[in-house]
Amino acid sequence: MKNNNAGLYIPEHVGIIMDGNGRWAKKRGLPRPVGHTYGAQTFRSITRYISKQGVRILTLYAFSTENWKRPAEEVGAIMKIFRQYLMDALTDFREDDIKVVFIGDRSAFDPKLQELIEETEEIAKDRQGMLLNIAMNYGGRDEILYAVRRLCRDVKDGSLSPEDVTEQDISSRLYTAGLPDPDLIIRTGGEHRLSNFMLFQAAYSEFYSTDTLWPDFKPEDFDKAVLEFNHRNRRFGGV
Question: CA 18 to CA 189: how far, in whole Å?
């Protein structure tokens, strides 16, 4: 973490659960998919703002493994927005030097979408600015299962003994392998739960909830979360 111009500690890794797109649209008498369109605009503006604040890693919860249960029309709209984002991202964030990585099970997406994901990552791989993790078809339990399966394969082939398995062995097989755990997790929309987001990594993350719906989330809302973070006493299980 480092200090900003206001003397506040800036979290090294921030996670955001972007919640409230559907409710934002409903409050305005609009179809739920419209909320996702406006949420995508917030996604771009907030990502750029957070990058300029000195955050080193930003992980955004965009689409969960459970979100497939939503109405087909809404899921289709989200995938359309995601596809458009990927096409824009081939040039998006270039001036900001933001590196883009996707975490989650991408095998559920159609082949062309998977190709766009890979192309987006390839173009951004050498950028030196903030790392942006976009969690798509992501679930914390699914991620732990993914890590455990990798561990089991290593045990089966004899490269690892069950008695020698450590917490670090699990961490190094997650989608976020090699990255520090999030210091701060922000949830918009007023809910106070993780909703299957970074369950392993969030053990000692500070949690901040705001009633602001994601399409209305502004830089000043992020600043409030950072200010609150600075008032927390992080003891990590100690005194």
Answer: 8
Number of residues that make up the chain: 239
Instruction: Report d(CA 64, CA 199) in Å as an integer.
Output: 13
Which residue from 90, 153, 148, 149 is spatially nearest to 123, judged by alpha carbons?
Answer: 90
Output the pLDDT for position 2: 62
- Return the DSSP state at 8: P
Query: 40 with 85: CB under 8 angstroms?
Result: yes
Model pTM?
0.92
Distance in angstroms between the alpha carbons of the first and the last residue of the chain: 21
Distance CA 102, CA 123 (A): 13
> Using CA atoms, how far apart are residues 166 and 171, in angstroms rounded to an integer?
9
- CA gyration radius for the chain? 18
Instruction: Give me the active site residues, please.
Output: 19, 67
Q: How far is CA 238 from the centre of its chain?
A: 28
pLDDT tens-digit profile of 109-126? 999 999 989 999 999 999
Of all residues in the chain, the percent with pLDDT exceeding 70 is: 96
Residues 198 and 59 sit within 8 Å (Cβ to Cβ):
yes
State the DSSP string of 189-213. Answer: SS--S-SSSSTTGGGG-EEEE-SS-
Give 159-178 pLDDT, tens digit per residue.
989 999 999 999 999 999 99
